Amino acid sequence: MYIIIYDFGTGSVKTCLFEIDADIRLAASSTAGYGLYISENGGAEQDTEEWWTALCSTTRDVLKKSEVKPEEIKGMAFCSQMQGSVFVDENGNALRRPMNYLDQKGYQEYKDCMGRGIIKVSGCSLYKLVRNLLVNYAGSTSAKDPVWKYKWVENNEPDVFKKIYKWLDIGDYLVSRCTGRIIRTADTAFATFLYDTRKGKEGWNKGLLKMYKVNPDHMPPIIDCTDQVGELTKKAAEDLGLAPGIPVFGGGGDTTFVNIGAGCTKPGDTHIYVGTSGWVSTFMDHQTVDINAMITGVLSAKHGYFNYYAELETAGKCFEWVVNHLALDEIGVYLSDTTVADDIESKHISLYDYLSKEVGKVPPGANGVIFTPWLHGNRCPFEDSNAGGMFFNIRIENDKRDLIRAVLEGICYHLRWLLECSQKKVKTSDTIRFVGGGALSPVICRMLADITGRTIETVSNTQEVGAIGTALVVAAGIQGADVLELSRQLVKANHVYTPNPENKEVYDRSYKVFKNLYQSNALNFKNMNA
Questions:
Q1: pTM higher than 0.90 for the full model?
Q2: pLDDT tens-digit profile of 149-176?
Q3: Which of 80, 82, 108, 486 is the most buried (most CB within 10 A)?
Q4: DSSP H helical segments within 296-441, as ranges?
Q5: CB-count burial class (<10 Å; 0-12, 13-18, 19+) for 258
Q6: Fold of 312-462+499-529
């Protein structure tokens, strides 16, 4: 059985064609990028036609690579970035450029609504927070949350706002474009924090819509991630190079499916993900929240289950920044002859692998340098859009290798912070599955084990875990199987990394300093960036 999954990330889509029988195999994959347009007012927007062009080119590419015929594909779905906003008309056409999850243009709308009130928690109105918490254990406590994108359009683009038929997340828009049906999956509905998670009351909460002054008519019907939405339309099939009539399933957000693709499907199983963003997530059979640390239990693909989810918005994005601005600017730092820079690809799988090996030559602790991975502000365990990345404690003897290692360690320090915050509310697992692009590097895997003090496991096709989880959901839907059991059967660990006690002292010392850096510089960040 062949299933096609679109793993739709921040800057690119990875289209994956899976073959599923006694195990799950990646038959072919193809990647294409699209823009992320950052503006000075906090905007982070994308282009729907760039998305669609990327989907079409990668679909045709995987069919060519695999030699699988379009009519052999039995199902398709999207695993996409979440907390974006796409405003569409009755025909499903986008009325403006979609707003990515990083978009924080709605800061003033957030302050005007949540910053008022005599009693506040984490800078937000206690009254409004409590109303939200009673309904769904969450709250719109960040300027990046979707409701403030909606309110920004209402206040700043009234001509667009009056044309809105429905308000969608990114994956929902793509499903609509494939099927002609406008819906939201339950997980993306929850991500607006306007969704009621109470048993028997699941759906849009009328009281929250009224409190935030959101038009109920703009809210689409809600389906489960595992439901079939419809079939691929003739027009979409022609564009994509697929056969019309392929069943299209609800799919959903990346956080919804990664735990399934990682094989973390028993309550208490914890995984860490490092892609463009990063997170620590523990699979749960109940919901809880830590409003001070900005952690909540988001909906899982399986009804009645949750992922207790703590996010770092710029994880792998920090390493990408390093590659572009520290390594590639002067690649000769690492090569005796700069004219052989083009030969890196032939000697190493990628430049990222090469740099990973180079930083492996630097001792733990990066020779005293510490980096903070807050390149686009931070959300958890503190919310501050003004926070920034910084290198701390650079001395004359430090070099670029130290700085690059410090960036990787800084990501791991923040993940440890998220893990410890999660531990305050839920029991995390002693062995943690590490997935995403970051898990491709043995250096980073060992670093994460040493810094967290936990045993780290990786899995095959670690970059495709979200797509694998989504494919298993589709397969379970077609077969009438339990997706959690299917995941446990098919997803196994392939490498194990145990903490090295010799590195504990240096990492503990640097981690203590790392946590102090935000508090010591919060006012400085505000003065520079507010």
A1: no
A2: 999 999 999 999 999 999 999 999 999 9
A3: 80
A4: 316-322, 344-347, 351-359, 400-423
A5: buried
A6: Nucleotidyltransferase; domain 5 (3.30.420)
